[in-house]
Recover the amino acids of this structure.
């Protein structure tokens, strides 16, 4: 658990982060979102003390992070950045092994960990381990960058715009991969992004920053339906809000009994994707199918529209 208490960072007397307090629960993903200059990256970098606060403190599992030597703290906390930051003169395996080597791990343990992570990220260790970063695609470099951040088995992973350099198709897949890995490893992730869509997809909680201040810290659903002020309202977007709300849940709780004709959709499809299928196929009702291929019932356009409407 990370507790941020009255945190302030000033540069030349001006607050880049202004009296921010919030608690980030263990084993969750928190997305910090805001416009350029809002203080989100500075806040992130104070967690591993790449930046030192002017005031306030950060507790990690009730321990003040200032009581730990900066270099030791950074070896315990994974860090992945936009552009991946891979060392071009080192192989993929050597890049991933960077922190374990600094920590003095035995060679056999390092080799085992590198192979585990490459396998986890669906990169064949024998094929990709000996390669150099320039021999990889952008998506592969991004996965290696995250793998390097996880190499020393940290409980916390900090990510600063990690998907910003990827094209739209690869970015969507990279987000899905990150969520799968977070569930498998149970780590705490704090991710900085300027993209509210990304924050909604990835975050168990979203922290919205504006001009150095924390203006709202809430679940994606509350950010969408109960924006704290006009800035958050504008950030989530009035026209996009119903669709973003539908993206948070599967059709499971909208399914009604009874079979209907037509190609089915899976039970775990999001309500947003189900609505898209209806609009594209010109249907107002979709049959829904369980994983075993049996019928789960159907979902209607009216049911989805009700769930996308403004709460009363």
């Amino acid at each position: 658990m990370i507790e941020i208490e009255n945190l302030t960072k000033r540069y030349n007397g001006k607050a880049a982060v202004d009296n921010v307090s919030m608690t980030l629960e263990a084993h969750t993903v928190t997305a910090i979102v805001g416009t350029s200059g809002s203080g989100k990256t500075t806040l992130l970098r104070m967690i591993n003390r790449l930046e030192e606060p002017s005031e306030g403190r950060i507790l990690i599992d009730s321990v003040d992070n200032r009581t730990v030597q900066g270099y030791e703290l950074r070896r315990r906390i994974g860090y992945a950045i936009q552009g991946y930051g891979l060392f071009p003169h080192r192989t993929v395996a050597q890049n991933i092994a960077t922190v374990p080597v600094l920590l003095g791990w035995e060679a056999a343990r390092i080799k085992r960990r590198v192979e585990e992570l490459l396998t986890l990220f669906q990169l064949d260790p024998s094929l990709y381990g000996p390669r150099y970063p320039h021999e990889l695609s952008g998506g592969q470099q991004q996965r290696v960058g995250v793998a390097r951040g996880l190499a020393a088995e940290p409980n916390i992973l900090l990510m600063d715009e990690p998907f910003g350099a990827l094209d739209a198709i690869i970015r969507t897949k990279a987000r899905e991969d990150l969520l799968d890995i977070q569930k498998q490893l149970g780590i705490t992730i704090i991710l900085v992004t300027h993209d509210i869509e990304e924050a909604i997809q990835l975050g168990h909680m979203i922290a919205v920053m504006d001009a150095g201040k924390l203006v709202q810290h809430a679940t994606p659903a509350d950010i969408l339906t109960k924006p704290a002020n006009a800035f958050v309202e504008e950030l989530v977007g009035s026209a996009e809000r119903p669709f973003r709300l539908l993206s948070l849940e599967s059709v499971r709780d909208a399914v009604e009994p009874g079979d209907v004709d037509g190609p089915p959709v899976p039970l775990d499809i999001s309500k947003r994707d189900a609505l898209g299928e209806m609009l594209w196929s010109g249907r107002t009702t979709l049959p829904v199918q369980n994983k075993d291929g049996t019928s789960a019932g159907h979902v209607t356009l009216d049911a989805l529209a009700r769930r996308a409407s403004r709460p009363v």
Observations:
- The chain has a mean pLDDT of 89.
- The longest strand covers residues 14-24.
